[in-house]
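Q: What would this chain look like folded?
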Amino acid sequence: MDESILISSTRMTKLSINYRKLVVDGQKLSMFCKFSTFRHIALGLLALIGTSGCGELFKPSIASICEEHPAMCSDLNPDAWCRAEKADLIRHRFTHQNGITTGRQKYERLLLLEHYQACIVKAAQIRHIKHREKEAGRMQGVLTAQDRLKKLKWRTRNDNDPYLSYYHWSRFNDDAALQRFLAFAKAGALDHDPALLIALAAIQAKHSTQQTRETLYKALSLYSSDDDIDKEVFITLTTLAIDEQQYGQAYLWALVAHHYDGKININQYKAMAKGHAIAAGKLEDKADAVIDALGDGEFDAGQLRLDEV
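A: My prediction, written as structure tokens:
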């Protein structure tokens, strides 16, 4: 079995934190992320820090928000383009209509503006033969996104906050922001938040496979339910193991990844296990134990003896 094939296929989705339907302040988003690309890792943070609750049932519709608070909508494109991105931004504006104050809220707003801008810029390039006024509306959305992003980036460039520090380093290669983020990590200030730990793992991946693995294990241990877990973490753990030629570990995490996302070609990993005379049965039992622990919100790499695989 040529492991280079596996490495190639897994790297295509390495920590591609492929965001199903994610929640930000109760509003679902569709996004994707890739571990090796810091721009996309940030999208993962946005997804992971979202919250939801029973209050979701009583939230006003976007139409009613725009009717009662027209200023929250009037500077965005009025047509149907970028409906989801526009709705997410309007919902965030409504939820924080008294102002965004925390670093996390500012980070969320930055990403929502980026998503909206990416969509509306494409839409603005589409010519409308009969209704030229729609083009003007889309351009208005472009200008809004660009202006709001520019101002918020400038205001947050020196914020001593882990989310914003990571943002400014990942977007602008701001070394001062990176040092602030690493200082938070050293002080243990990231250890309560799986999203921030995954961001830390993105940094560590360039320097230490073992540190990256340990950080991802710690992130997994913080989830109370596997419903919330960024499932692409499992693909990354698989890839890290292949990079180190730890084929037992690779097969274990491939099994876990396959359980949560059938897109992975598990037959390739079974062939790998056979080619390296790996005790597949024992690893399948271990994978089941890992899956059970994740489902119960009791993942503990030490208790599962993952270092013995």
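The CA atoms of residues 164 and 302 lie 32 Å apart.
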